[in-house]
Write a structure and sequence with these properties.
The complex is a heterodimer of chains A (505) and B (484). Chain A is mainly alpha-helical and 505 residues long. Chain A is 64% helix and 4% strand. In chain A, strands 3-4-5 form a 3-stranded mixed sheet, with no helix packed on it. A two-stranded antiparallel ribbon of chain A has the order 1-2. Chain A is globular, with a radius of gyration of 25 Å. Chain A starts with a helix and ends with a strand. With 484 residues, chain B is mainly α. In chain B, the strands form 2 sheets. Chain B has a 4-stranded mixed sheet. A two-stranded antiparallel sheet of chain B has the order 1-2. The radius of gyration of chain B is 23 Å and the shape is globular. The chains are: A mainly alpha (505), B mainly alpha (484). At the A-B interface, α8 and α11 of A face α11 of B.
Chain lengths: 505, 484
């Protein structure tokens, strides 16, 4: 137990480092972050409480949460991301507990490490926008669903609040709720009376989501046409074989920063390894929980395909993290088997097992259970093996560091594009904006037609009076836009790699 | 009849009387109100809506009651009865909630007298039959209290605060003017808990906030987004001190039920009569506060009423009868406590209450029914109401809102397209026109109308047979266009 706590502490420290390093500028402030950050400015200068957030489907709760950070740190990327960092730390704790409850100490630990040190987590969960909170709310919901210390009705109230707040935060959390609750309900179908104990969950869910539901009904204009979206779900389903390896391997998440995806071979190798580990998890003595987890992921993915009009990286984060966690379970079980087999060859094992029935005969076919090994007095967490999760975390950190952080620090990002299914995405949104800010400070009034560029400038101008964004385009001297690969530099600050400033015509 | 087995038969008798009193002539006494009709029209709009309807009659009146009305309107058509049957069902629930709560708070004997005094008061019998959302305020108040005072043995006890919060939230959703009542209930409950030094109960009540949001969240959003229809009320909070100063003028009229009766008949009680009745009620309230039995409960109840009244005076922009219903009922209930305490004191007649405890509520119910029947129902049936004014302390209100509408509907049946400048008349016409049995056609505008409808006010010139379609109508003028 003490050993586990120490290991967890080490891992948490690594997690903290990985999620705070260069938080203020890697990646550069991007347009959607800035747009949400602008809400804080609006909140401060309106004389009333608002129930309308960034969109009709994104609630204002996170804007209120961000406010003290922006007040303390100013209108910059760090203020927005620090709020998310706190939620990330909470996610770590919740995931550590939740995964341990579901998969046991060892497998749970590996699942945690694989998930929170995956490239997807390290790259997406530092961004300061509302959708970053999905894993937090997912694990918060799981935490309450699996907390056996309280009665079902009490857990139901908290679980409902978690689900409702998650949905309030962003409507695309719905597939995650379905993915978690579907298996949870199915688990209780053999004892329907147990389900009755959860009657308060809809109530607390509505307490958290009711206000946002009203906003969704009153302002449907920005929600698109659900019927059209659902009608094209088949097309999106057909793209999955192309999309899944890219997201699961982390290739496109890396490309979002650097513009460069993994080689096809690497992508497939990583995906295959993950797949194999998942299969191990499904065959292990944690298979019940593993199959439930997998069922939840499949349900979540299918619902997501129904809801969203195209594949984008942010929507797939929860799914990818869930797969990595499951792969971690498989890895944990493999490590346990390897340790057990090795231990079984030692004199200590022979002595401990003397006189006891042969395990292989007394157990069901499959991998040996932790309980049996403990009975024999063979501890699965020998000192060296206990450090394996820490080593795994370091390896994953090093991988992401070398494939993303180092290149990004050298180049400041990229304007290259990459495919995800039929949609084309670009790394340009994540480029370092510090050179742009330095240039714009000396440029006088500027304007941007591109909303992502405009939003950044607007947000930054709230705290930086040297950035002058007039109310009218005709008052601007310069127009700021992206400088895509192959484009000529701008007239002002031609050294800018990813932006160009041209004279307003 | 022994002390132990008198209770249930008495309650059943009272229930029967209650149903009789609240359903008698429900379809036409009073006539369809403009505000009832306006809310009833929401049902029509619900059928037309292409998405879930979350906006009710106003931003501060939620759509919950509109959805509940739907099956009744479908069954009974666009009639006053369809709207009022809904309220009758809630009223029946209110009866049981009141009886249970009063028993919990003041015991069987005194509690039943208290409940009777409230449920058969002229305020209740006149205002609680109207088919508009604000009628539900007593129901939600009592439901919230019921959930806050659950006995330890109750299976719902653990979730009492959460469900009480839900009830409170739904009450606010239904009509934002529930807030003063909720404040009174909440402060009263907190006071009671602190009085008993059950401080852990206070902390354990936090789920009430969850329930409150669950019930009120959507409507809160609607109110935050659509502030236009209550911004005047916000501005009027500045006149709180004026309303406070005018309260002594209003209170006797309210508590005596004089204004509630006048709302139907146009006739107020004389000032001495109103003062006398109010004085009796006040005296009974004092008895409840100073007699030794359950004095603490009565004090807390009074405190809650004071809070209710204070918040109400702050929130409203003018005196209006509907806003004071829960306050008035609360006072009558406390008066009933005083009456019960006085008359049912052990040893008063040398015996345990027993038979007298059974008889007193029934006598009281009959007496109050007879009083309201003779001062309101009988005159109304004779006259069809009145378009006269009555006093509300610092202003006068009109009884025209409740005048009989059946004669008007009969007059207009198949007579042509109608129009009214007065929004309350227009709302009635529109609502009734949705029912084909009425053969009522409402014009799109005044220019297209062949008949113009208005009130025949007290002091208006006599009916003009040449210009009017139905000159015999006492309270309506139906002018033929062209003759206008």
């Amino acid at each position: 137990m003490m050993m586990r706590r120490h290991i967890l502490f080490f891992i948490f420290t690594l997690f903290l480092i990985a999620n705070t390093v260069y938080l203020h500028r890697v990646p550069g402030l991007f347009g959607d972050e800035a747009s949400e950050g602008e809400n804080v400015y609006q909140l401060r200068w309106h004389d009333r409480i608002t129930v309308i957030g960034e969109r009709s489907y994104i609630g204002p709760l996170i804007d209120y949460v961000r406010t003290p950070f922006v007040l303390a740190l100013g209108y910059n990327a760090l203020a927005l991301r620090l709020a998310m960092l706190l939620f990330s730390l909470a996610t770590f704790m919740l995931a550590a507990v939740g995964l341990r409850r579901m998969f046991g100490e060892t497998a749970g630990m590996y699942a945690l490490v694989m998930m929170v040190f995956s490239p997807t987590y390290l790259l997406k969960q530092r961004l300061g926008w509302a959708i970053t909170l999905f894993p937090f709310f997912a694990f918060l919901l799981l935490y309450f669903l699996t907390d056996k210390r309280f009665r079902a009705s009490t857990r139901a109230v908290w679980a409902g609040l978690a689900a409702g707040l998650g949905l309030h935060n962003y409507i695309v959390f719905l597939p995650t709720i379905v993915g978690i609750m579907g298996p949870a309900v199915a688990l209780h179908m053999r004892r329907p009376r147990a389900l009755l104990g959860w009657w308060l969950m809809p109530l607390s869910f509505w307490a958290a989501f009711g206000t946002q539901f009203a906003v969704l009904q009153i302002f449907p204009e920005d929600q698109g046409n659900p019927r059209e979206v659902i009608a094209l779900a088949g097309e999106r389903l057909a793209q999955l074989p192309d999309v899944l390896p890219k997201v699961l391997s982390g290739s496109v998440y890396v490309a979002r920063y650097t513009g460069v995806q993994f080689a096809a071979g690497t992508t497939w190798l990583l995906t295959s390894v993950l797949g194999l580990l998942v299969v191990v998890a499904l065959l292990s003595d944690k298979k019940r929980a593993a199959w439930l987890w997998l069922a939840g992921l499949v349900i979540q993915l299918l619902f997501l395909i129904l809801m969203v009009d195209r594949f984008t990286l942010r929507y797939l984060v929860v799914f990818v993290l869930g797969v990595w966690a499951l792969a971690g379970v498989g890895l944990g079980m493999l490590v346990q088997v390897a340790l057990f087999r090795r231990a079984s060859l030692t004199p200590a094992f022979a002595k401990a097992s003397a006189g006891k029935p042969d395990i292989a005969l007394s157990e069901k076919p499959g991998l040996p259970s932790e309980a049996h090994r403990a009975k024999l007095g063979v501890s699965p967490a020998r000192r060296g093996a206990a450090l394996l999760p820490v080593i795994l975390a370091l390896v994953l950190m090093a991988w992401t560091g070398s494939s993303v952080l180092v290149p990004y620090l050298e180049t400041g990002g990229s304007g290259e594009k990459f495919n995800l299914g039929t949609s084309v995405d670009s790394a340009i949104d994540m480029v370092d904006i510090r050179p742009l800010v330095a240039c714009v400070r000396e440029a006088g009034p500027v304007w941007a037609d591109n909303p992502h560029v405009y939003n950044r400038l607007l947000y930054l101008s709230r705290g930086d009076k040297q950035i002058h964004l007039p109310l009218d385009l005709n008052e601007a001297n310069w127009i700021v836009d992206y400088r895509l690969p192959g484009q000529k530099p701008g007239v002002k600050c031609p050294e800018l790699e990813h932006f160009r400033l041209v004279k307003r015509k | 009849m022994s002390a132990t087995n008198w209770y249930r038969p008495t309650v059943i008798v009272l229930f029967v009387l209650f149903v009789v009193a609240n359903s008698a002539w429900l379809h036409r006494v009073p006539g369809l109100m403009g505000d009832e009709a306006s809310e009833g029209e929401n049902v029509y709009l619900l059928f037309d809506a292409k998405q879930l309807f979350i906006t009710g009659e106003r931003s501060y009146i939620g759509p919950f009651i509109d959805y509940i009305r739907v099956p009744f309107v479908e069954m009974l058509g666009y009639t006053p009865l369809a709207l009022r049957i809904v309220m009758l069902l809630f009223s029946v629930a209110t009866f049981w909630l009141a009886v249970i709560i009063c028993r919990r708070l003041w015991g069987q004997e005194v509690g039943l007298v208290a409940a009777t005094a409230m449920l058969f008061s002229p305020i209740y019998l006149t205002s609680q039959r109207l088919g508009w959302a604000i009628t539900l305020l007593p129901f939600f108040a009592l439901l919230t209290l019921y959930l806050l005072t659950l006995p330890e043995a109750s299976r719902l006890k653990r979730h009492g605060p959460l469900l009480a919060g839900l009830s409170a939230g739904l009450g606010l959703h239904n009509h934002a003017i529930f807030l003063p009542t909720l404040a009174g209930v909440a402060v009263g409950w907190v006071s009671a808990v602190m009085w008993q030094r059950h401080f852990t109960k206070l902390f354990a009540a936090w789920p009430a906030l969850v329930g409150l949001l669950a019930g009120f969240g959507t409507q809160l959003s609607v109110m935050m987004i659509n502030r236009g229809d209550y911004k005047d009320a916000i501005l009027a909070t500045a006149d709180f001190s004026e309303r406070l100063a005018a309260l002594p003028q209003l209170l006797p009229l309210l508590i005596s039920g004089s204004s509630y009766a006048a709302y139907y008949t146009g006739w107020e009680l004389s000032r001495p009569a109103a003062l006398s009745i109010a004085g009796i009620i006040f005296g009974l309230v004092l008895a409840a506060l100073f007699m030794p039995r359950r004095k603490g409960t009565s004090l807390v109840w009074t405190f809650g009423l004071v809070i209710l009244l204070s918040v109400l005076l702050y929130m409203i922009f003018q005196f209006s009868l509907r806003y004071f219903v829960t306050f008035g009922l609360g006072v009558w209930l406390l008066g009933g406590v005083g009456l019960g305490t006085l008359l049912l004191k052990p040893g008063f007649n040398g015996k345990k209450p027993g038979f007298f405890a059974a008889l007193l509520p029934i006598i009281l119910a009959f007496a109050l029914m007879a009083w309201t029947g003779s001062t309101v129902l009988v005159p109304y049936l004779k006259t069809g109401g009145s378009t006269g004014n009555f006093s509300l302390g610092n202003r006068r209100d009109s009884a025209a809102a409740l005048i009989a509408t059946r004669p008007l509907v009969e007059c207009l049946r198949g007579a042509g397209s109608v129009w009214a400048h007065n929004i309350h008349i227009q709302n009635r016409l529109r609502y009734l026109s949705y029912d084909p049995r009425h053969e009522l056609e409402v014009a799109a505008g005044e220019e297209q109308a062949t008949l113009l409808i208005s009130y025949r006010l007290v002091g208006d010139p006599p009916a003009d047979a040449e210009r009017e379609l139905c000159p015999v109508l006492k309270h309506w003028r139906v002018i033929t266009v062209g003759a206008h």
